[in-house]
Amino acid sequence: MFFKPESPHHKRYTNVPHLTLFGTPLKRVETFKYLGHWVTEDLNDNQDIERERRSLAVRCNMLARRFAKCTDEAKITLFKAYCQSFYTCSLWVDFTQRAYSDLRVQYNNAFRVLMGLPRFCSASAMFAEAHVDGFAAIMRKRCAAHLRRMRDSPNSILRALADRWDSPMLARWIRLHAVR
Q1: How many structural domains are present in the chain?
Q2: Which domain of life does the UniProt lineage start with (predicted)?
Q3: DSSP conformation letters of 58-110
């Protein structure tokens, strides 16, 4: 995969040689799934956020169908176990507000559907009443935990990346934790 430059002022690669690995030509791709995370040529995270949004919808619909007659306590436990993972969300640093908002809305609606709540009830109220973390709290916790693991890592490269002031992950952590 060749990554597009960050700005139009950078040199574009027009004549890239064909690459082979042990005589097998390597295919050029615009996107690649690596360890469950979608990497794109422009390093934008919208596609991975959409993957997570769809996955959340599937998981919640399955829970709502199979456990409709369970107690609220059981549903909340299932929601926390199956709908709050957001795999690789701590790596999201470049995305559109639309993609992120769509995931947040899906998270809120997933809880409403599972709990049988009205469509337009207050998200903050329903999470507070159920003692469940809202979307913003989940994102803050995941991002902070990831940054902490990087800083505590025995790997000096990871520690250096986590401590750089110009790190995209540190900038995301600051945006998530800043009071508006």
Answers
A1: 1
A2: Eukaryota
A3: HHHHHHHHHTTTS-HHHHHHHHHHHHS--TTGGG--S--HHHHHHHHHHHHHH
